[in-house]
Specification:
By secondary structure, this protein is α/β, with parallel strands linked by helices. The chain has 13 helices and seven strands.
Length: 377
């Protein structure tokens, strides 16, 4: 059992390793000390491993100093249990200061194709004190094997979570980046039918039809079972001279065979190959190589399950909520067909940057301002 001083010492050491700095006061902000979104993910992974905890990214957003993280870890390990279920769907990311008056409705940010909400980390920091922001994630723990998912099915699950967490008086602004926008659209339609108030649906560079970066470059392509098969075939040497895969084995069977031999060196080599061939995965799961072997498999299965759900989805019907389409100036995701899916107003605005950079720290102030002001129109 750690003492409180030992907890602080371990966290200070983790910060020093991640930030490559030994001069770190207990009250310095992680990002002010040179941290980034990727570094925060690495730190979160290392912290959970050091203390055998299961902190959410939201808790790193809210506890951005050594002192505050030490306090949070100390409370967690002395309590002996977490307040959050390990399969939490709804995660608080930012809180408005009382009387701030900037954003009345609660912002609900829906996960991307990776199934997680890491992409909203910088946004959460920018909106802290200005808005109530919650993220909706798809728990990776449920993906020991791939699952057959659908975008409407995910939307139904998430709306049920919102109805459980908030009373009928709560007004929502649904926000979805990339594939999250399609899930958000289905959520808005379902909330309409439940007579729950949706002030606005914000599609943040959301494609109308899923067409994501492919294995060869950042252009068009697919992440399909045949692409995985080609990659896994190259790891047949794990059989040690014996055939690793049976003739006609499915991709799922191939994964099971590899997983049985998935030590750290193999995991790191697989992660490097995935990130080289599938740059989208490298962007939405940037810490893939730092995951333990079980998490590694679950994260990939979650990605491929959500990806396949997105590929089979096409928007139908309309929501009563106004739609705000915020598109990146250097992407190709503007599609006028989105305007046919609202019974209210439709507005498109351009954000400077590409599909990913509009959520980076360098661009997040303009993106956050566009999100906050959209509700005023």
């Amino acid at each position: 059992m750690h003492t409180k001083d030992e907890v602080t010492a371990v966290i200070r050491d983790l910060w020093s390793q991640v930030l490559e700095s030994d001069e770190l006061p207990g009250d310095i902000d992680f990002y002010a000390a040179g941290g980034s979104s990727l570094m925060s993910l690495i730190l979160l992974t290392e912290l959970n491993e050091a203390f055998a905890t299961e902190f959410e990214i939201a808790e790193l957003v809210d506890c951005r100093t050594i002192d505050r993280q030490s306090e949070a870890v100390w409370k967690r390990i002395t309590r002996g249990a977490t307040d959050q279920d390990e399969q939490t769907v709804l995660v608080p990311l930012a809180r408005a200061r009382e009387g701030s008056g900037v954003q009345d409705a609660t912002l609900i940010a829906v996960h991307d194709v990776g199934g997680d909400i890491y992409g909203y980390t910088s946004l959460a920091g920018e909106l802290s004190g200005r808005a109530d922001l919650y993220g909706i994630k798809l728990a990776h723990e449920r993906f020991g094997a791939p699952q057959a998912l659908s975008i409407p099915g995910l939307a139904g699950k998430y709306v049920a979570e919102l109805e459980s967490a908030f009373d009928d008086s709560r007004q929502f602004v649904i926000l979805g980046w990339s594939l999250g926008g399609t899930v958000g659209f289905e959520m808005a339609k379902l909330l309409d039918r439940r007579q729950r108030s949706v002030a606005r649906l914000i599609l943040l560079d959301s494609p109308y039809e899923l067409d994501l970066p492919g294995p060869d470059d950042a252009g068009r392509g697919a992440f399909l079972p045949e692409d995985e098969r080609t990659l896994l075939d190259e790891f047949g040497w794990l059989g040690g001279g014996e055939p690793l895969f049976l003739d006609g084995a499915s991709v799922e069977d191939m994964w099971r065979a590899v997983r049985a031999r998935l030590d750290t060196p193999v995991k790191e080599r697989l992660a490097a190959e995935f990130q080289r061939r599938f740059p989208l995965m490298a962007r939405v799961i940037p810490h893939l190589s730092s995951l333990n072997t079980l998490e590694f498999v679950c994260y990939i299965n979650r990605f491929r399950s959500v990806f396949q759900a997105g590929r089979s989805y096409r928007p139908t019907g309309a929501t009563a909520a106004p739609i705000e389409l915020l598109t990146a100036s250097r992407s190709q995701n503007f599609d006028p067909r989105w305007s046919t899916h609202t019974l209210a107003s439709f507005r498109r605005r351009s954000l400077d940057g590409d599909h990913f950079s509009i959520l980076d720290r360098t661009s997040i102030r303009a993106t956050a301002q566009a999100i906050i002001t959209s509700n005023a129109h």
